[in-house]
Every structure is written in structure tokens, then in C-alpha cells.
What we know:
The strands form 11 sheets. Strands 14-15-16-17-21 form a 5-stranded mixed β-sheet, with no helix packed on it. The chain has a 5-stranded mixed β-sheet with strand order 23-24-25-26-30, with no helix packed on it. 35% of the residues lie in helices and 23% in strands. Strand 28 (701-706) and strand 29 (711-715) form a beta hairpin. The longest helix has 73 residues, at 297-369. Helix 6 packs antiparallel against helix 8 (195-205). It is built from 23 helices and 40 strands. By secondary structure, the protein is an alpha+beta fold. Residues 1-21, 133-160 are annotated as: Disordered.
Amino acid sequence: MENSSESNWQRSGSSRGLNSSAVLNRYSRRIPNDQDSEKAVLGHSNRGGTYFREGDGAVIRSVESKDVSLRQWLDSTDRVVNVLDCLHIFMQIVEIVRLAHSQGFVVQNVRPSCFVLSSFNRVSFIESVSCSGSGSDSCNDESNNQTAEFRGQNQPEVNSNLRKSSENNWLQSGSLYLEGSNVEQAEQKKNPFPMKKVLQMESNWYTSPEEAAGAPSSCACDVYRLGVLLFELYCTSSSAEEKNATMSSLRHRVFPPQFLLKWPKEAVFCLCLLHPEPDSRPKINEVLHSEFLSEPRDNLIEREAVLELKEKIQEQELLLDFLSTLQQRKQESADILRRTVSFISSDIQEVTKLQASISGKQGLNSINDDSASSGSRKRIRNAEISNSLEPEHQENAIYKSPRLMKNFKKLESAYFSTRRRAFKTSVKPLTKNAPMSSDGKGSIVLTEKSSANNFPPIKRLSEGKQTGWIDSFLDGLSKYLSFKNLEVKASLNQGDLLNSSNLVCSLGFDRDGEFFATAGVNKKIKVFEYDSILDENRDIHYPVVEMSSRSKLSSISWNNYIKGQIASSNFEGVVQIWDVTRNQAYRELKEHERRVWSVDFSWSNPTLVASGSDDCSVKLWNINQAILLLHLVDGTSVGTIRTKANVCCVQFPSDSGNTLAFGSADHRVYYYDLRNPSVPLSTLIGHNKTVSYVKFVDSSTLLSSSTDNTLKLWDLSESTAKVIDCPVQTFTGHMNLKNFVGLSVCDGYIATGSETNEVVVYHKAFPMPALSYKFNMTDPISGDEVSDSDQFISSVCWRTQSSTLVAANSMGNIKLLEMV
């Protein structure tokens, strides 16, 4: 034990041997007596600090939020001296000091700032103690105290540092643990006792004469500090100046006259504890058994019993409050669950009726086709239909789809989200985002991750008569489960030995899906014929057209009206218009000052092109401004939209040439009416990183992709607000943190790349992936396919009106994939 204590001291350094975060609790819930000293033992924490234990139970606790510093309690301006309160507090501190001394420790910080009081005047010690290292059971032999051994010869300087450390510890921990201990707030309120100032003076008030002379701390010094504390308990002051003057006089054992008149017994006992000679002061056991503390012991025992009873009552009340709150919350959850179950039950009835109606029509058609059918056959057919609607059939159908069960929670969330949108559309009088009241009135409030929150009563639902949600949800569910895999139909390896990088930056099909083009950092646009690529008799596939650019290419876009026309953008900031039939560029558009990331032809106006650049602008070009045949002539833009950040993508909707959307490096998507390009129609906020792609799903629905690992679906028709910050759907399941990985939309299916070298397919109705395919590389030795995690998918594109898509990765490998 002795060696352990010493090693702990040496490890702790200036913290005086104990972990200052430890809190020494009430050493007894009753008034200490002679037998208590036999129960105290010294223990060691597994953090290297030391703490006291009483019997078999730990006496260390965390400071509660309602506890208050003894220093603040003493300096409270409305404090009235209560004899029993003061004796109770003093007795507990004396017992703490006695317990430490009995184990060979000097409690150097017997100061009010190192103790806290509970609401029942329980005292807790929040500072560390210093180890004497003597290993003795008491501190009776002051000459054998080895505290100086750990102090060294520079004792005054060390003591000063320790005192400062103590003050700093209190100041730092006060804001965390104690209510109302913030120094700055106290000063702002002009407290008569500014905490910071008082703490600075407190160290001097509680320094014994021998410590001030440079002697090491001893048990007698703790007794001296007890005398100072006892004086503070009984002597009140109205100002910091009066307090400082009184405490300064105390160092010379001079008491205020009113103190001597009002508290004569206490004054005599203080004089005894404050004796200038350490050897003349009583030992800690003598203090504990003195007449001053022995006389009121019976009253204190009775007071302790009352406090214990109050604490038990408070604890029972706390437990009762907890159980009541728990019951209330569970009841609310049960109410929500009952409403949700009723809501689902009404939907089941609705779907069952619809299914029976459809099946009835089918049966009626069969009967008309077969005039010989009898009434018994009708009954048999109706029975079969009825059996098909049994819950067992429905359950079996669900469990037959592992993909559906794996994503059941997300499908559940999508169902409630669909129902919420349908309800909002059909029930107009409801206030948007109104909270649910006790009578069930209010709107449905759902989050993307929740299954269901608050649903209105079934009566209100029946008033809406909404059935449109069935078609939309069923269509999404059907399409989500329609395909099981992505199958490779053909592969192309377009690696160029003359180029160190073969990254394909952009892919695109022409308007009829007969040709697709690739472009990338190899500065070439290659056009392939789709049907010839699928020809299994050909081992090597060559492009039907190959066109070279002066710079690395970032994006291409086919003209949806003029079949052989492609627009491209490059790293030099030039937009080029290519004639595929003539195998050359016939127009260059040079106004961008930096790299152009994206280019797009308008669907409704085939002469209009948009481009987005690192120069924080979107430019609009009319390719028919001048008659250009075979000569390269610089074009002039017909409009410019300036932004505050780099533009990474631009996109026209398919049904209008008057609107445009683009994504920016400021994490936002902007939707503009080109007839008024000064301000955006809407700003879409929700991504956390750069928006790399935007695609129109339809005229009022926009999809965005970002390097925050998400895709977001936005409804542009619902909101007329300038800012839309609530996407309809957020898709997660792919990885995209730093690269352009491609994005394409077709018939509700969304294809995107992943930095795991995978193609991921979503359906717009559900937030989780429906299909995925991983690009593997062929091992040149074994010929087996192995994963290449260093590569990523760089571009994807759906073939129009089909279940086929083309995808390329950063190695230049291209695959035609089909959903099967």
C-alpha cells in the first residue's frame, strides 16, 4: 500500500497525487462516531489515482447539477447563520480530514472552493489530496511526515503552483458541474463577492503561518485551515472589501467584536485551532472529540435522521416521476401505433376491394367468352378468387422475395411517405406541418427515416377518398421487383497504349439509340454502333467514327433533333459542335475562362446549347447564329448566368426550352426560367458537398447527385417558394466522395456509378438500390476476374426506352448492361 501510494503520487505530479476529477462523497450518512474510524480503508482506482472507501462501499460520486460550491454558499448575501447547519457542515469536513490523516494523507485543500453542498447540506470534496508517503495510520508524528520529500527544496514555488492549479481546477470545473458558478456571469451581475477575486484571496487566507514561512504542509496545517473555515461559517460579511479585511485580521487571531459577542464558544475554539505554533494545535481526533463538537452531537444525529428521511422521500418522488413520464411516453407510442394500425387496416380494405373488383371484371369477361358456363362454375371461380386473397397467400408472396424482406423497413418508410403525399394532396384544409392534437386533428408529420408518426382518424381519411397512392406505390413496387440482376451483354476495352489515362468522362446515346459516343481524357470522341457491339461473332469492336480534340474532354451531348450532331466541352473552356457524318468539329464556342464541366442540348429548341464552367457561369449558345459550313468560327453566347461558385452540371428539361437547372460547388441546385435569368425560380438546398449532376426525371421532378454519397429527388411543382430544402426522396447505397461517377434516368430507373467500381440502379420510388453490378478486372496470369477497388465508375447512360445501359470506368473499360 505504501509503495502504491508513492508511485501514484509520482505519476500524478502537480495534481498532488489524486485524480482531481474524483469526488469524495459523504463519508457517512450519520454523525461520525468512534467506530467509524475502523471502517475507513484506503483504495486505489484503476486510473492510478487514490480514493477513500468506507467499509465495502465506494464514497465517490459525481457532483449533481443542484449542488453548490461551499464558497458560493458562504458568500451568499442572504445567508443567515444557522448553528445546526454550520455544525453539520463543519462536522462532515472534520470527518473528511480525519479519514485522510488516519491513512497518512494531508488534505492540503481544506478550503470552501474545494467542497460542494447538496440540497440537504451534504458535503462533497471535489479536489485531490496530497500523499505524505509515510504509510502511517495517523499524522501524530509530524516529524515523520514525508510530504516534504515529494515537494523538494523549492517548496514555496511548488505550493504557489499547486494553489494556482487548485484555483484553475475549480474555475474550469465549476461551469461543468456547479449551477451558477460561471465567473463571467457573476461579474456581469456585479456580485458583491466576485468569484474570481475571492478565489485569488482564498489561497492566502487558508495558508498556515508555517507554510507562509516556507515549511512543508502537515496535518497541523489542515487543522489551522479548519479553524479558518469554522470562522467563515459563523462570520458573515456584506462586501468583498469587508470580507478581505476581516480575513486579513484573522491571520493575527483578531476577531470582529460582534463575532466575539455573538459566538463566544466558537471564537474560543477558533483560537485553539488557529494557534501560531503547530505543536500547540489539537490533533484531528482531539478536534472531533472536543467538547465543542460533542455537546450538540445528539441534535446533529436527530437532524441527520430527518435529512435521511427527506432524501428517501425525494428519491421516491424521483422514481415516481420517472415511471410516470415513462408511462406517458409509452402511452403516446401506443396511441400512435393504434392509429397507424387502423390506418393500414383501412388501406388493406381499400386494396382488397379494388383487387376483388378487378378480379370480378376478369371473371365476368371469362363468363361472356364462355356462354356454356354454369352457375356452379361461377361459384368455383369466385371461390378461387377469394382464396387467392387470403392472408396466407399474401404472406407467402412477400416471403418469396428476399430482396423485399431485406429492405422491408425502407419499403415501409416509402409507403408512409407516399401515403403522406397523397393525403396532403387530397385534404387541402389541413395546415401544413400542423401538430397532431389529442382529438386527431392536424396533418401527418413524417420524416424520411420514420415508419409513421401521427395519423388522423380513419373518418378523416375516408373523407379524402384518395386512391391514387395505390397506383403510384404499386407501380414503384412492381418496377423495383421486376428485375433481379444486371447482365453483361457486351464489353469494350478502349484502353489506348499511347495514353497513360483512359478515363471515360461522358457517355451518350443518339436520339434513336442506334449509336453511342464516348469521350474522356484521351481527347477523343468515339462513336460505336449499338447493334454491331452486340454481335458475338466479332472479337474486336472498332468505332464507326473517331474525332480528336485538342484538349481533354469532360462532357458530350447528342442533339435530339439533328441526328449526327454532338456538343462537347473540354478542359480548356471551349464548347465544340461536331458533325459526326463529316467526322469533324464545325463550330467552336469560346467565352468561358476556365474548364467547362458540362454541356447540354435543349430538347425543345435543338439550336440552343447550355454549358457550365469553373468560371462560375452558365452560358447559353445559339448554334445557328451564323451560317458556318466547314470553317471554324468563334461563336458568341446569347445569355450568361453568373453564380458564386463553380458550375459542375447543366440540364434542360425534355418538354421546355425556357427552363434550366444546374448544380454548383456551393452544394446547391439552381432552377432558372431563362426568360428572367436575373434570379432563380427555385434554389434547392439539401446536399452537403458539391452537386456533380442534375437530371430531369420529368418536367416537374429533378434528380441531383453529389459527392456526399447521396442522390436527391426534388418536386418542382409543389412549392412556389424560392428555396426548397425538403427533397421527395434521398437515395443512399453507393459511394461517391470525390469523383464524377455519372448519372442517368430512364422510365423511373436511376443509374449511377460508385467509387467501389460498381454500377448502382435505383427506382425513383424507393431510397435503396434495386440492382448493382461490379466491374472486375481479369488477372493476366490466371485469367480469373478479380476486384479492383482502386478504380471507379466514371460514366453511365441509359439507352432510350429500354432496360439497357452503357457504363464505363476509370480504366476505360466499357460494358453494355441489361436489367434481367
